[in-house]
Write a structure and sequence with these properties.
The structure is a single chain. By secondary structure, the chain is of the alpha/beta class. The chain has 2 domains: 96 residues, Histidine-containing Protein, Chain: A, CATH 3.30.1340.30; 64 residues, 2-Layer Sandwich (Histidine-containing Protein, Chain: A). The chain has 4 helices and 6 strands, in the order αββαβαββαβ. The strands form 2 sheets. It has a 3-stranded mixed beta sheet. A 3-stranded mixed beta sheet has the order 4-5-6.
Length: 162
């Protein structure tokens, strides 16, 4: 009988621990989406973001793409590091020319869609959207549909779906 009580307590403790872990994972996913939304808002106001892509996972922001000058790169990095909830920044930005053609407004629209997908980034070139990152399989179809509603030439999917 004593073994049954111990086993019941152990099972109960395990269930509590499991629910806490699941809840904290969901909370972090929402925090990552919130961080991405704040960065997207900054990106619309700061021209230095025009060639920069960003993903967020567990509060860590990974930046890639191009900035035309070191000063603009420094401004982007400062803006990201001062964003509430950001734990760390992985900087993969290069100094290189950034063309602001007709793709600029499409990229801003794409970035707005991507606020709901913290682990996905996109590049836009010649009105063609290329996705990178990771996403849940069940979310991928909704993401592609939302992007196609922006009327690009197409959407290339280079994402890992899980």
């Amino acid at each position: 009988m004593n073994h049954i009580k111990k086993f019941s307590r152990l099972c109960f403790a395990f269930l509590i621990l499991l629910s806490v872990l699941i809840e904290s994972g969901c909370d972090q996913q929402q925090k990552d989406k919130d961080i991405k939304a704040m960065i997207s808002s900054s990106a619309k106001q700061e021209i230095g973001f025009s060639g920069v892509n960003y993903t967020i996972h567990n509060g860590v922001v990974t930046l890639s793409g191009n900035c035309p000058t070191q000063q603009q790169k420094d401004n982007v990095l400062a803006r990201i590091k001062n964003t509430n909830g950001v734990k760390d920044v992985i900087d993969q930005i290069q100094i290189a020319p950034v063309l602001l053609g007709t793709d600029y407004s499409l990229k801003q629209s794409v970035d707005s869609v991507l606020t709901q997908y913290a682990t996905v980034a996109a590049t836009v070139q010649d009105s063609l959207i290329t996705l990178q990152g990771t996403i849940e399989k069940k979310q991928l179809r909704d993401l592609v549909k939302s992007l196609m509603d922006l009327h690009p030439k197409g959407v290339n999917q280079h994402v890992s779906a899980y």
